[in-house]
Specification:
about 350 residues; 11 helices; 2 domains; D-Maltodextrin-Binding Protein, domain 2; single chain; 12-stranded mixed beta sheet; globular; alpha/beta
């Protein structure tokens, strides 16, 4: 009986093997659809937040090109660059978005970026182009500023030097220039104004500092939660509070020495696996479709001439724009020895 059942089972399996192509529809011959086109973009946390530009950028880019954006967040811009330099060609990124002119030397010195002049490059305000080779391409800009809570500060500081006064003891939140682009920009700003005496300035400033935050997001969060009445941010930051909170409480202090400009940029990586898709993204980045998203999501100025939202009346442009040279790694070490280790 067992042998007969065993033989019957083999016969059944043989019949099923002959019939399976009829039921499977010859799946072996069915073509496999190609993977959906994508581009991998490294950026900073606030750009890729639910309130940042990324969701709208992703939606519009897909509508226009059919290409999906894969966002990868790495803290602040300084952290992005450090990670890129560490991982090099193994990063898996096609584009880096969010570096600024203060990181130009380190970024381009790596040899990881490839020149590409997007189709909309002629729209960029000429004074914003800091890499003539278009390895780093401007995407937005603003001016660093100390933002203050006008309900707690009736008489704001009017200069960098004012910040060293006793009235501001433990009332200022700054960011670490080793991990944060605003922190790096502020260091460059102070060095531009004070020249070789910048370390003396930081010694005088030290009593005013409540904390050195790792990123702009964490530092500004401490400010809005009331931890301190002064924070390093941008001249464009008060427009956010007017637009979404209907308040003019937070304002940018305008300093008589001028304000350091920050120009954020994107760059194509030479080892990009999706290089043609990345180039299409850079073309899109300089279009009105992309640039119109920037003011009300990234709270920066667009790099091409388009109308600004009404809330940008709270965003004064500096009458004296400063373009400090990039901070060197040696100067970063000197700053850390002076501020962090003491």
């Amino acid at each position: 009986m067992r042998k007969r059942n065993y033989a019957a089972a083999l016969f059944f399996l043989f019949c099923m093997s002959l019939a399976s192509p009829l039921f499977s529809g010859s799946s072996r011959d069915r073509p496999v659809p190609p993977p959906a086109p994508e581009v991998v973009v490294w950026t900073y946390d606030s750009f890729n937040s639910e309130w940042g530009p990324a969701p709208n950028v992703e939606k519009k880019f897909f509508e226009e090109t059919g290409i999906t954006i894969k966002w990868v967040s790495h803290g602040d811009a300084g952290e992005i660059l450090s990670r890129l330099l560490l991982e090099g060609e193994a990063s898996g990124a096609d584009l880096i978005l969010g570096l600024d002119q203060n990181m130009e030397e380190r970024a381009l010195g790596s040899g990881l970026f490839e020149a590409y002049k997007p189709s909309g490059a002629d729209r960029i305000f000429p004074e914003l182009i800091f890499d003539a080779g278009f390895r780093l391409i401007p995407l937005d800009y603003s001016y660093f500023a100390v933002v203050y809570d006008s309900e707690r500060v009736p008489n704001p500081p009017k200069s960098l030097e004012d910040l060293t006064g006793g009235a501001w003891e433990k009332k200022l939140i700054l960011m670490d220039p080793r991990t944060s682009s605003p922190g790096l920009g502020f260091l460059a700003w102070t060095r531009e104004v004070y020249g070789g005496n910048w370390k003396d300035y930081w010694r005088r400033l030290s009593p005013s500092i409540l904390t050195i935050a790792e990123s702009w997001s964490s530092g500004y969060g401490l400010f809005t939660s009331g931890e301190a009445p002064l924070v390093l941010s941008y001249t464009t930051s008060p427009s956010y509070h007017l637009e979404y909170e209907d308040t003019e409480r937070y304002k940018a202090a305008i300093f008589n020495e001028g304000h350091a400009i920050q120009i954020e940029a994107a760059g194509l990586l030479a080892h990009a696996k999706n290089k043609e898709n990345a180039k299409k993204f850079l073309d899109f980045m300089l279009s009105p479709s992309f640039q119109s998203i920037i003011p009300l999501t990234n709270w920066m100025y667009p790099v091409i001439d388009i109308p600004l939202p009404a809330s940008f009346r709270m965003s004064p442009k500096s009458g004296k724009a400063l373009r400090p040279r990039p901070v060197s790694s040696g100067e970063l070490d000197e700053w850390a020895a002076l501020i962090i280790r003491n």
